[in-house]
What we know:
Layout: H1 4-14, E1 23-25, H2 27-33, E2 36-40, H3 51-60, H4 64-68, E3 71-74, H5 78-89, E4 94-98, H6 104-112, E5 116-119, H7 123-137, E6 140-141, H8 148-164, E7 170-174, H9 179-191, E8 196-202, H10 207-214, H11 237-246, E9 249-253, H12 255-269, H13 279-285, E10 296-300, H14 308-314
Amino acid sequence: MITLSDIREAREAISGRIHRTPLLSFRALGRQAGFDCHIKAEQLQKTGSFKVRGALNKVRRLTAAEKARGLIAVSAGNHAQGVAYAAAAEGAACTVVMPEAAPRSKVEASRGYGARIVQRGTLSDAFVLGEELCREHGYTFVHPYDDPDVIAGQGTLGLELLEELPDLDAIVVGVGGGGLVTGIAAAVKAIRPAVRVIGVEPEGAACLTVALRENRVVPLDRVETIADGLAAATAGENVLEIARTLVDDVVLVSDEEIARGLAFLLERGKLLVEPAGAAGIAAILAGKLHLPAGSRVVTVASGGNIDLARLREILPH
């Protein structure tokens, strides 16, 4: 389990290397849902998503020998950018394996941070290639979510939320592999156990829902969602261990609900996010949260890295 001291140490280590992203009131969403709603605008974070938190914390804890071997990451995009950024900051070479359908903007941004990009098939295919390259070249692997140092880094966001809104009632977090929701849960439950932590998964990528139901990690046969940032085919062992004890609920949203959430945030909140960053909004708008009226709710806009062409395809017409 990740401890509060792990997360506080991570925050001390990455302080000054990331932005303190704003927490914004969202009254239009609150009126629709019957809650007091706020958004943590993490799409304004360095590299455009929360992923840089965990990447910086992981990479700074590597030994000189591990960094010298070069780093490798597998990602649909946001983790790729975070690791590339962290590697450059530590003077380490970085290779990123991405699926062929990864958004062009994420590919180019990762390359811009200095990573060597290799693309192959689906995200599952990319993981297989990443493991092959690790064995062949001796690279140091930086897992996108199922790593204690990565989870602790993501947990720094939970500390910020409690400082910015001490009397919050619930935090709603999009779930891909589960590193963010479990990091936040580990931080928040250690300080304010009564705060509810609720994960949101796409119906077409419900790996944590399945793992919690089966009480074991179960790879999905198929992943299909517009939220590429949440398109993990499997939860991790560390993630499952934390989630089963600290995450209060995981709800599912459809791609149509995600698209509506993205459009609502853009139109009424004047904030542009990628589909993964709109998952929490989608769950609130669709009435998926079982919370008392008037609850003070924060949702995390986890990332904003989206191609404009893809945005046009996703927005309801």
